[in-house]
Amino acid sequence: MKSDPTSKPEPKSDLSAQIAKAIRDAIIEGRMIVDERLPSEAELAEQFNVSRPTVREALKRLAAQSLIRTQRGAFGGAFVNRLSYSEAYGQQITTATLLLSMNDVSFDVACEARYALERACAPLSAQRCTPDLLASMRAEIHRQGQPGLSDEGFCASDVAFHRALVDGAGNPVLSYQLAGAIEAMQPLMNMITFTARSRGAIIALHTRIADALEAHDATAADIALQELEQYTLRLGQDVMAARNKA
Amino acid sequence: MKSDPTSKPEPKSDLSAQIAKAIRDAIIEGRMIVDERLPSEAELAEQFNVSRPTVREALKRLAAQSLIRTQRGAFGGAFVNRLSYSEAYGQQITTATLLLSMNDVSFDVACEARYALERACAPLSAQRCTPDLLASMRAEIHRQGQPGLSDEGFCASDVAFHRALVDGAGNPVLSYQLAGAIEAMQPLMNMITFTARSRGAIIALHTRIADALEAHDATAADIALQELEQYTLRLGQDVMAARNKA
DNA sequence: TGCCCGGAAAATGTCAGACCTTTAAACGTC
DNA sequence: GACGTTTAAAGGTCTGACATTTTCCGGGCA
Predict the structure, then answer these.
(1) pLDDT averaged over chain A?
(2) B153 at interface of A, judged by CB pairs closer than 8 A
(3) Quick one: which of A50, A136, A142, B71 could link to B76 by a disulfide (CB 3.0–4.6 Å)?
(4) Domain check: are A226 and A212 in the same one?
């Protein structure tokens, strides 16, 4: 008996959740290190005094958070997973997207958050932006000017442009944090119909931003970003106004 | 047979993962709305042609991401969950903490990301900060000055101070994004031994920040934050240097 | 001696069926 | 009409079994 009943502050049932929590805590507190193998399902079942399906449910919970990975076969089992940036990006984006879509977050609030965060990276990007990231940004700008590009395509390219901007800061932690903020805006942006005129205005601002970064001019980049925020905000408000009328 | 084998781009087995993905996509794409009830486990098992334990594993995966909630009893079942801010905070913090601890992110990089993001909120906080949030900040500053406070306690209070700062921006999306950045730094900060002298310096800077916000002076707040960043960075580098020597 | 192949073993993946517990709606009684 | 009781639906858990995958070890053959 590993888990004495006296130390359970969570009397509510659901054994698999309790077991998942116990293992998760062990990982977070560093009692289990990366790539360490967990006991087999049968052993865990014995340790926690539950059946194997219950243990499996707990392990699936952890797998869903990318905390462990499992491997079949003779020397397989569950291993503590090194959380990669790409996995973290994915979770971040999923969570942020759902948070926005399920809590009727207003366009204004989401927009404000996104641009506040992006403006935080701009000075670093202006300082460190690499040629290939600048090239990516120019490529996206070019794509945005293609005639016949759908609104969804324009939005996707916009997202790619802004992700290149934050990646330019050369700080992977920052990139990870911003991935959610930027990607989660896409569904909201997709509601906007981009006219040729508004596309032109956005492309012009994107160009100004890229130029400023290339010139290592943080102030100019910040001003252009502020203008882009104002412009985006206005586009969004127009859509909202049109919607409320209908 | 609902899932024809031809349309599976993921030939690798693991039925519960496939089923979880199918349901998750349905939720993300809006085919299932908040509070909608999923079919019962038995019905899902029949639909997907799998056994009930397999369905349950899939549901646990979704529950781990707070995408669904389950309820026992007669009209119970699994329901699409409205992802609350507090749930999102929790996931964000867990993921960010693990990301930092498992990828030997340097103190410098984490610190830079954190302060870049915080500085993004400062102008908004200076504009909107409410009296009760200011009071929270003052209370934390006071606690930080208590003699006999442990290093862990000092760090915890530091985190609380900074969270109040970002909450002051009055933008829940921003607060959510920053929760991870701030909380994930705590383990790194806990490695630092805070002398009476360094505590005094930090408290002085915290006071300057609070004063600036109260005076709605965004520039002064930004400058104080920059100084705090520099100071924190130096403390961290000293610790790293001492460690490498040992 | 050295290489290849096949079986054993260990672990996860899946299934089937049963029982318990919880919960709320439906029913009947006063 | 209000209140307690029954009952059925659904999730939570257990037992046991079989399938599948992968590694390792040992034996046969050149």
Answers:
(1) 91
(2) no
(3) B71
(4) yes
Whose CA is closest to B111, among B167, B220, B189? B189
Domain boundary among B53, B80, B107: B80
pLDDT tens track for B43-72? 999 999 999 999 999 999 999 999 999 999
Number of domains in chain A: 2
B21 burial class (0-12, 13-18, 19+ CB within 10 angstroms)?
A: middle
| SS3 at position B190 | coil
Q: Give the residue from A19, A46, A80 where a domain finishes.
A: A80
Tokens (6 digits) for B163: 């969270």
Instruction: Give the domain range for residue B204.
Output: 85-245
Q: What is the pLDDT of residues B226-243, one digit of tens each?
A: 999 999 999 998 888 887
A124 vs B: CB within 8 A:
yes
Find the closest chain A residue to B171 by CA distance: A109
* Same structural domain, A40 and A64: yes
pLDDT digits (tens, 9 = 90+) for B121-155: 999 999 999 999 999 999 999 999 998 899 999 99
A200 strand D contact, CB < 7 Å? no
Same domain, B40 and B104: no
pLDDT digit string, tens, across residues B156-200: 999 999 999 999 999 999 999 999 899 999 988 988 888 888 999
Phi, psi of A2 (to 5 degrees): -90, -40
Q: What is the CATH number of the domain that holds B18?
A: 1.10.10.10
Cβ count within 10 A of residue A216: 14
Q: Both B93 and B66 in a single domain?
A: no
The average confidence (pLDDT) of chain B is 91
